Amino acid sequence: MTLPRDYRGQTCALARSMEIVGERWTLLILRDAFYGVRRFGEFAAHLGVPRAVLADRLAGLTEAGVLDRRPEPGTGRREVYGLTPKGVALWPAVRALTAWGEEFHPADGGPRRVFLHAGDEAPLDADGRCTGCGTAVPVTDVLVAPGPGLAAPGPDADPVTAALAQRHRLLTPLLTTAPTGRSTRGSQR
Amino acid sequence: MTLPRDYRGQTCALARSMEIVGERWTLLILRDAFYGVRRFGEFAAHLGVPRAVLADRLAGLTEAGVLDRRPEPGTGRREVYGLTPKGVALWPAVRALTAWGEEFHPADGGPRRVFLHAGDEAPLDADGRCTGCGTAVPVTDVLVAPGPGLAAPGPDADPVTAALAQRHRLLTPLLTTAPTGRSTRGSQR
After folding, report:
1. Which residue would you say has higher pLDDT here, A67 or B164?
2. Cα distance from B180 to chain A (closest Cα, Å)?
3. Domains of chain A
4. What residue in A sits closest to B5 (Cα-Cα)?
């Protein structure tokens, strides 16, 4: 059954949010943007989403001011996608939905990824506060680290999957462009 | 473009969450369940969602253990939908997405609804903590109250819309069945 993209007759704030981030794949694309994915091809390879769907979602998120297109740092030759402040403000929602999935549909062997406070490397609690120092940790101070349920990436893993097997600060580009034009891992912290 | 309901190849916790709550209308149905909507006809009238879609979503949420069907308190004659503990655990996600919509796509005149701590009636902050006493307020102690942007319901408003114009504790049934079988408003606090 095809449903319209807008929620006719619904004027509440949640409906307005869902008109922007409620399409299929949208929140997974945003999750990858928090993890530092920047380029179209990296999103496509990591998510396995059809390219037409990815293009539609990236265009919609850019039009809504959640993502922007910016020159790739260090090269200036190509455009990459990045979260705007409006996009970064979605972190509590992404974190809460991820935590709910971890709690009620846990992966074999435990969480695949855990979130830590960069200051003291203590895990965040269910409210996003540091279990070590009690701080409400801003997004820019969150580390995403492999959890016990994450299998080691195979030799054929795409570069994003391989980079995500390393501890990494949110919002920091996962991959950078070497002078040869080949992707290499960004700094790990 | 039709996309499968599951996220093939995606094993992260967020993808598992979105397979359950990421369908169109699902989070709005859950929002109404937090507000105390219990009956099929009330969801249908308040949301304006096609009945076949509503039936599909309620069945899916029940199968996933997010909602359950229970006898209506006080009558025992009919079944109503209620949030299970697994469903109640979605509150941080629903609240975060609502807060994001209020911040970046505000309604004319201000928020339509505000969330207050039942203990001291102070508003909750962006993290769901009470701005009066600092408590991380559990869902059962949250009041939803009309905000400055909520228009007074007209004489033809459906019963849910009319009841939601009153301050009300989350998870408490909005409408109860009087001995005549007619719906009446639940207790307001």
Report:
1. A67
2. 31
3. 13-185 (1.10.10.10)
4. A24
